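Entry 14. Two folds queued back to back today. First construct below, sequence then structure tokens.
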Amino acid sequence: MSALRAVGLGRTYGRGAARVEALVDANLQVAPGELVVVRGRSGSGKTTLLHLLGGLERPTAGRVFVGDAELTAASEDEVLALRRGRLGYVFQSFGLIPSLSAAENVEVPLRLLEVEPQERDARVAAALDAVGLARHARQRPSELSGGQQQRVGIARALVAEPAVLLADEPTGQLDSQNAAVVMDLLAELVRERRVAAVVTTHDPLMAERADRVLTLHSGRLSGDADGGAASGRPPGGGVTGRD
């Protein structure tokens, strides 16, 4: 069973002469432990796709399933619960709260889920250790490099043990060296933790670490949209999977 599935997904903005089809009839399945990269120029619909997959926007057409739960049929409260418990996000701009330490930023999703303090502390420590930042737990974002801030963002996205990870241009603000570190870390954690991941990027090096690479052009998604989720192929053996 796929961890994430979209069927006939579409999003239109505006009306009449101002009408824009940001996404048209997109179909996608992602299996646990699979890393799918979506490439496309600015304005091609990549961010719109992630917003629809993550329940941040409602589609004009189509359906989204996270496991067996239909996100597009859920109430606002149900969508919020799904986003908190089963979906993780990594943002291009890091999205960290400047006044909080690295550990406190990672802790935010667990506070929203009302996890007990002792378990919360243990999970935050483990998440920071997984991204190589255990010794930076008390530092604020301004005291960290861009690459370190994005690793905090990854720890925060994964600390609640989501089934699905969505990352919007996660290396877009980084130099090539830090980008490579973040890309390797993302790919490793996705497969190790069996998370279904969709990553949008302009970076061709990210595609080298993917199980599948899809392309968005003028709101239309092309490539092997079903992949291992439909065929039973294990993640890691896609179009551009790593050795």
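Second construct, same run, same settings:
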Amino acid sequence: MRLSKLFTKTRKDAPTGETAKNAELLLRAGFIFKEMAGVYSFLPLGLRVIKKIEGIIRDEMDRAGGLEMQTSVLQNKEIWEKSNRWSDEVVDNWFKSKLKTGGDVGLSFTNEEAYSNILKQYISSYKDLPVYPYDFKHIFRNEVRSKSGILRGREFYWKALYSFSKNDAEHQEFYERMKASYQSIFNRVGIGHLTYMTFASGGSFSKFSHEFQAITDAGEDTIYLDEKSGIAVNKEVYTDEVLNELRLDKESLVEKTAIEVGNIFSLGTKFSDPFDLTYQDENGTQQPVIMGSYGIGLGRLMGAVVELLSDDKGMVWPEAITPFKYHLVALGEQHAKADTLYDELVASGAEVLYDDRPDKAAGEKFADADLIGCPVRLTMGSKTPDGMVEYKLRSEKESRLVPGSELSALLKS
């Protein structure tokens, strides 16, 4: 992609009214556009990151046995009345509307009812279980607190998988599989070393749920971490009873601020019961389906990566989710040679963001490269010796000259 053809522009100053680092940097770099508080559009660079994250999550869900589908955003009032979650007195963050032909609809704020209602039509026998459908979709919540950039939004893009199992043993086996899948996701996007599975409130059907908390001052949660074992406890369940059960020494725990980047819940029969979601077992007896929920907000995860890995110059994208791996900069009279290199890289299948803007000085181009944060910067300028390319990693201060003849091998490493 040529920067001269990209309609977005970088900006030097932080946008007014944004205090979160993720919002400041993503807006300055032209990754997102703010529509209103808690609502952002993803521009070309930002969408590339979201799609990379989506691909990683899809890969992990498919490996675990997930089946991708997509539930509708518009939700039927009657369906949600079955679980008693239509009333604003029960759920106060609905966005609702009325159909011109009559009737009420809401915009999805979660997916349990939608999946239970759909699966009810297809599950009747023990032979139909287990099944693990999931989707990526936009979710809408009328949040009061929408001040942390893309970490907490009124509209956001997420992945939700729901497990449908014959019994608790089968459910627990998949639940453990999801723990490993989630940790793999956070490792692959570059923040696994800062993310801890955290014991949290489990609701009515299990003593604990599990959150994946990334350590950052921008977080809204307080956790207590045993750094030796890697076990963490959310402040909401931080009691002597829980610590004893988990065999944690209170004196060894460190208080940390963190942001929840994923969660998994055992739902039991909370949502299968209202929909009479049952199956006939091997003995001909009707049994309730056991459910679980596994969610990740893609925008929130993207924002967390920015919060955790950026520096004072801008973003530092891990290679797995960077919008482009290479940021090619042409300076002075070297545009023709840089054009040739760009064409060669693209032809080889490399992802390249090419700063071919003729009216920008070297300092401005380098500043933009640091702000955008691609892993590798390649520079061809008037001071670059013939046959050489300046090669610099975003994570390092110093650059080095590389012969053009050796560049292909280096880029494959």
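Quick look at the second one. The radius of gyration is 24 Å. The domain at 3-73+108-309 is CATH 3.30.930.10 (BirA Bifunctional Protein; domain 2).
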